[in-house]
Structure prediction request, 111 residues.
Amino acid sequence: MKSLDRIMELTDVIEERVLAGDWAGATGLDIERRQLLAEVFARNPDAASHGECRTILEQLRARNEITMAAVSSARQLLTIAARQLESAPAVVRAYERNTLQSTVSTATAGG
Prediction:
């Protein structure tokens, strides 16, 4: 049961890291967590069918789904931000061209 306790502790910290945007930290801990899960099932291939162990694994699965949804949402937001940053230079150039044209038009109309 110690492995499962450690797995749940790691899950707590992974969730915190994901919320903080610490992807490298979350990934490193997830690797450790996966290794522990593999060890649990190597020792007892039927671990998921035993009462308390099954309950803990179901909780882990549910929490993992919530965390993956948060990661997916953050990924979408980062993708949108990256696209905006990629288009920023073109937007600035268009703004500068329009501002220059507006300034020239105003100067010639008033002069």
Remarks:
- The chain has a mean pLDDT of 87.
- The longest helix spans residues 51-110.
